[in-house]
Amino acid sequence: MKVPGSAHRADGDAAGVTPDSKTAVAAAAATPQPFDPSDSAHDVALAELRRLLAVWAFHEPGARSGRDPEELHQLRVAARRIDATLGLFKHQLPHQLMAARKSAKAVLRTLGAARDLDVLLEGLACYCTHLPEHERAAAEPLRALLAAERERARSRMVRGLDSQATRHWLETLAAGSTAEGGNTDGVLTVMPQRVRQRFRRLRKSVRRLSAKSAPEDFHEVRRRAKQLRYATECGLAVFGKPAEELLKAVRRLQDELGAQQDAHMAQTRLAALAADSADALPPATLFFMGRLAEHHARATTHARRTLNRAWRKVRGKRWKALRARLEHLSAAAPVLNAPEEASAVPIDTEILAAESPPAPDPHPIKH
């Protein structure tokens, strides 16, 4: 069996893929494919897995080459979304696919270690953009140290991608995504319930936050926001305009939480580097690192202050509108999933025709 992503070239370009076609593939892969409201959740899940495996195969060569950090980011997002899809449809998918979730965690750790260093280097370059020459010179030993760490992390990442465990994970996903039959739960029976469940979990994690909450608590909120976003995006074809409006607010919430997480990660890494490399780094660089750590501390404080405003936009009228849409769809589900002999029962078409689904987002997949 041909494993998605197993064939790669050293130059980082997929065979036969031109720059124009790469742009087209990236745009087409940005959103889940539309589906029929009468489809089973099992079939919708498998179609989404096949799409995500194609996204993985598209970005793996570029992630290996290291020429564009965005390729690694997109590969990591594809792995996250594969894991999220398995979690979203865990009761409708075969056992072998659910067992593959264990391997996904190891893949994500390997990709994450390299991606974190990309983020640190990007943040350092951005911070240095408007600094005077002598301060940029003081930052250079830090940049070189991070770049060396990144190369080591990338080497470990490539070994991880080549490992038997990762190739077996991809083979299992590829084989399972073409399975026929299986659970017959209707997608409109499953997905509205999953979205409501993920919103409740997000709301619960937000309510546990306080001014003294640890960074791990904020990271948990970010994780729950991603789960809500992925579930909502997966059903965008039938959720329509209310889902699109909610997603805008959820993305803003993720941006706030992501800025805080990145700043905390940078502070932690700078402290560790200062402790481990104090004798190797010049005093001017250590002083620069202290100023950079203060910059990240201010970013963390700002992100915490704006979090409540971002959350209010999620839980307010946008969520109420989507919740009403979900209730309508749930009401339609028993009729759509009825056996053929009962098809004489009239279907309320107004429920399903409330809004046409939005056009696919041409931008690359985000976190």
Question: How would you describe this protein?
Answer:
The chain has 367 residues and is mostly helical. It has 2 domains: 143 residues, CHAD domain (Alpha solenoid), CATH 1.40.20; 148 residues, Alpha solenoid (CHAD domain). It has 14 helices and no strands. The N terminus and C terminus are likely disordered.
Structure described in brief:
The chain is mainly alpha-helical. It contains 14 helices and no strands. Helix content is 73%, strand content 0%.
Any idea how many domains?
Answer: 2
- Count of DSSP strands: 0
Number of helices: 14
Distance between the termini: 30 Å
Order of helices and strands: HHHHHHHHHHHHHH
What is the topology?
Elements: H1 19-28, H2 41-65, H3 69-88, H4 95-99, H5 101-128, H6 133-162, H7 164-176, H8 187-207, H9 215-234, H10 236-239, H11 241-276, H12 283-315, H13 317-336, H14 349-352
Considering the chains and any ligands shown, give keywords for the structure:
single chain; 367 residues; mainly alpha; CHAD domain; 2 domains; 14 helices; globular
